[in-house]
Design goal:
It holds the Pfam family Trypsin_2. This is Peptidase S1 domain-containing protein. Keywords: Signal. The protein has 472 residues and is mostly beta strands. It folds into three domains: 280 residues, Beta Barrel (Thrombin, subunit H), CATH 2.40.10.120; 128 residues, Sandwich (Jelly Rolls), CATH 2.60.120; 27 residues, no CATH class. The chain has six helices and 28 strands. The protein has a 16-stranded mixed sheet that branches. A six-stranded antiparallel beta barrel has the order 23-24-25-28-27-26. A two-stranded antiparallel sheet has the order 3-21. About 6% of the residues have low confidence.
Amino acid sequence: MKYFNQLLITLSLGLAILSSAQALAANKAPEIASKGQAIAEQKQAMKNLHGQLNASLRAAERHTVELTTSELSTLTAPGVDPTGRYRVGVHRAVGKSVSHDNADLIINIPGAYAVRLELAHVKGVVSVFNESGQARQYTEDGFTHTFIGEEVTVRGAAHIEGAGAVNLAGNLCNFNASCVENAQCTSIPNDINAVRNAYASILFRSGGFYYVCSGGLVADSDSNSEVPYFLTARHCVSKGREARTVETFFQYVQSSCSEQQNCSLPDSNTVGSTIVKSGRKGDYSLLRLSDPPPSDSVYLGWNSDPIASTDAAELFRISHPGGAPQAYSKHEVDIDAPNCSSWPRGNWIYSRDLLGATEGGSSGSPVLNGDAEIVGQLSGGCGFNVGDVCDYGNNATVDGAFAAYYSDISQFLGGGDPDPGGDCTDADGDGWCVEEGDCDDADPQVNPGRNDRGRKWGDDGKDNDCNGIIDG
């Protein structure tokens, strides 16, 4: 989440930057997801798998990754770094291999709250599990889910390229500001409360560090399709290699409003994504998740009407400050708020907090109008005292304006047409339609989002990425 101290203020009252696309405003209502697996079913499947793996324990080699003093300080004191993102962990090279025939491999990182691995040269099925009951299986190269604890066990044939050590947990959590509102413990308008399952905290790697931001699912205009589009901020995720590491935590809420808050990290839901479109104007990134979200998720509706110059318009938000469980905030558009030069009004929306607050880690969270439609997503704060997120008088909350970049993404969301380009045929549930290039709708491992080179899929005799070339 980015913050700017406003030293030189130029007031451009009433200024609205309108594009030709904005003149033809479009909107879309929210949708309920039906594909994907329910979170309860995910937990049961994990429990069953963990039981199977524990029932056949083997000898194991232990590899310890010792963190430096500087790296440990990142874990003990997470926070916003010079990139404007909320840093929560570090990534280290490992370079260890495990095979089906040999002993298991235990990766241990002293001081880590949780561990995440980068797998390469995966052959067959690779299982990763811990002592806390978490267990997952992988059949291709890439990043694993996050596992609670300092160590994980790897069983199968793979090369462990690297390992991440992260510290996620977080009034709401002990490091959140006192003005942050627990979404479970405050009154939220019914229309806004009904779409909370659209929001997720995301964990991703950029360079040698791990960061958290927020985001939300976005509906396209075809009510018969469920393309897992996900909106966040560009300053969070702007590169393909970052998008591939995105891990989502949907329905991450606190279970009670007692003083002893439970801020433990839940099981994640999806891993991996691709960038559909990303733009500096409005600071947005539209991603496509590699896996379908939980079956009871919500795809947010949207509205391309400009709202940046609609003084006193009410805005509503769910976010994950510091990677904490869902927080709620209410805002009001303020056309008199000081304008930070990097974020011109019109391409960005300036508002004052009325209830609650956002912090680092909230970046990318969609902000909604009273009809629960996306009108923007969080860039950060602008003001004279941005170090204090509870100082509503001296700081403005700034969101990239959906109206400013809608024309750039309308081809993906359907341009407001309820049936843009026909039906979506997706029999295998992989999130790719036959109409958009899925060349084998009976196999979820075959679609344009797959990599058919340099991985397990590179020698399986299939055209996994639908480019017309088998294993190429």
